[in-house]
């Protein structure tokens, strides 16, 4: 049954309160970046392991790929990835966070189910599309969001699709965090590409537009709005009072 439309608690005004100009700190100490040869290897590996050679290549989008796909597609439909769920389990020290104020990014983690969008990729220049996609989705070694073929349920049955799942062996894997803890992070963190609050609002807005409501994300956007409101109404301690401590 379709859900009834409700107003978001989190708004662009909240996002504006979190946003600030942040310089790109670059890769952290000891971090190794993927090279062109590494990306070429990933493209070859994923095309070679396609579960249904000759059939259309499908991409499962669950977050920012829905509102900023940056790749071509020739069709789309709603699908359910069973055995996976959206989770803010990926610590960010760059992009939407900083080493001083780490952020959290969403990834597919094991367990549950996730309703998202299946994009059919054009057959011409598939390797070029995947190369652009992989450069966008993972930067460091080992990859945090790993490309993997997963099964997605559609109205016509199960199909194989390319998804990006959390690498639990990554040092940036945050595990399963309480929504309240996630909200506190998203209400503060901001990097050179934007804030966690902006990322969350874009995601829930575009999911809602497609008739998809993730209960955890819906609760999370309300919690983030509350955190931002508390931070902007909290009384400030004067410099004189601070100096007397």
From TrEMBL:
Pfam families: ChaC. It comes from the Bacteria. The keyword Lyase applies. Keywords: Lyase. GO terms for molecular function: glutathione specific gamma-glutamylcyclotransferase activity. InterPro entries: ChaC, GGCT-like, GGCT-like_sf. This is glutathione-specific gamma-glutamylcyclotransferase. It comes from Sinorhizobium fredii (strain NBRC 101917 / NGR234).
């Amino acid at each position: 049954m379709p859900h009834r439309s409700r107003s978001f608690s989190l708004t662009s005004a909240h996002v504006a309160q979190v946003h600030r100009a942040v310089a790109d700190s670059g890769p952290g100490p000891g971090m190794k970046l993927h090279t062109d040869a590494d990306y070429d290897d990933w493209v070859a590996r994923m095309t070679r392991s396609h579960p249904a050679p000759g059939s259309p290549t499908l991409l499962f989008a669950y977050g920012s790929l829905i509102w900023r796909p940056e790749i071509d597609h020739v069709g789309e439909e709603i699908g359910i990835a069973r055995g996976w769920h959206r989770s803010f389990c990926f610590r960010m020290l760059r992009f939407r966070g900083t080493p001083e104020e780490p952020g959290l990014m969403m990834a597919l983690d094991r367990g549950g189910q996730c309703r998202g969008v299946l994009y059919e990729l054009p057959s011409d220049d598939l390797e070029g599309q995947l190369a652009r996609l992989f450069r966008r989705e993972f930067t460091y070694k080992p990859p945090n969001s790993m490309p993997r073929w997963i099964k997605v349920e559609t109205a016509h049955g199960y199909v194989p699709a390319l998804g990006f799942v959390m690498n639990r062996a990554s040092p940036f894997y945050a595990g399963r965090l309480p929504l309240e803890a996630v909200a506190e992070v998203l209400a503060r963190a901001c990097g050179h590409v934007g804030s966690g609050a902006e990322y969350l609002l874009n995601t829930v807005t575009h999911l809602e537009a497609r008739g998809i409501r993730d209960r955890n994300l819906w609760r999370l956007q309300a919690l983030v709005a509350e955190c931002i409101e508390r931070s902007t109404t909290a009384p400030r301690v004067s410099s004189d009072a601070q100096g007397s401590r």
